[in-house]
Write a structure and sequence with these properties.
- The chain is about 80% helix and about 0% strand.
- By secondary structure, it is mainly alpha-helical.
- The protein has a single domain, classed as Alpha Horseshoe (Serine Threonine Protein Phosphatase 5, Tetratricopeptide repeat), CATH 1.25.40.
- The longest helix has 23 residues.
Amino acid sequence: MLNSLDRAANSALASAKEREEKRRFAEAITAYSAAFQNDPASFAAAMGAARCAMETGAISSAKKPFLMASAARWWERAEKASCCSRVPT
């Protein structure tokens, strides 16, 4: 069952994807940011915002490998933190 934050995150993510497809990157970044605020573990929101930032020139394509590696490290940390929080102590 989705709580209100999950629904808000999913709605913002859908809106962001639609705007990105229409190449309205500044608006998509805003929507991805809203999704990320509601779900800080959203890899899709983080990567969507990064793709849009690259399209607008806010992130140089020369930094793309670093960006991808950074996102991968973030994702691994988020997974471990999520698993650790569910392990009974």
